[in-house]
Write the structure tokens for this entry.
Amino acid sequence: MKICTLASGSSGNCLYVESGETKILVDAGISLRQIGLKLRKLDMELSDIDAVIVTHEHSDHTAALRNIGVPVHVARATVHLWSSKVNSLREFDTDTSFVIKDLSITPFSVPHDALDPVGFSIESGQGKKIGVVTDIGSVTALVRERLRGSNALVIEFNHDNDILLYSHYPWDLKQRIRGRLGHLSNNQASELLSDLVHSGLRHVVLAHLSQVNNRPEVAFESASSALRRTEEGTGVQISVAPRKTLGEVLAI
Ligand SMILES: [Zn+2]
Ligand SMILES: [Zn+2]
């Protein structure tokens, strides 16, 4: 399996996932043109993509869905938002697995202020597993359960509590970000990471960093100190997803 972030953060999210002959995108929150340009850097075209699977309806995850021209899988509660805009729309039920060629995908509920937001557990025919959670205000037992045993994790490291506290954001927005339905802090994400670490975990991608309320080196240090405290954590490679440029291509 291979993964690579095309963009990550509040200005747009898109993650490329490949397994054998199967190529999908998780979210399409940048322009179609940008998706095309970035796929070309990976020696692909948009027409090579089998499907897009969508975590939730916020525009930083869905900006390119209109006219994207490949099948789009969305949660049942959000179908009405897309039925007149997306040609090949497929719906999934939260916590019911579905298959795209050799990938088995399980969407699971996450706490976030959207209609029916999900994270994804994505398993390949070769028995590899990737867990993806961005835009999650708090960590539930279900989230831990669905992510357990992943060989690679893409986890939101949205904000640092101290940087957020002193940033210029208005108080009500700070409250929304910190709230149970908002976004994950470095501390929350690191706690989740240390709970999920196991000998088969190879990569963790720190995703959806706030440009204002976080810094890549602060998020990295938070994740790396959480991993250092565990025996299996030393074998895990950490990457920080860049906001607007291609991330590392990670082989799992
Ligand atoms: Zn988002
Ligand atoms: Zn969101």
Observations:
- The two ends are 5 Å apart (CA to CA).
- The helical segments are 32-41, 59-62, 79-82, 141-147, 161-166, 171-178, 186-196, 216-228.
- Residues 2-244 form a domain with the Metallo-beta-lactamase; Chain A fold (CATH 3.60.15.10).
- The chain has one domain: 2-244.
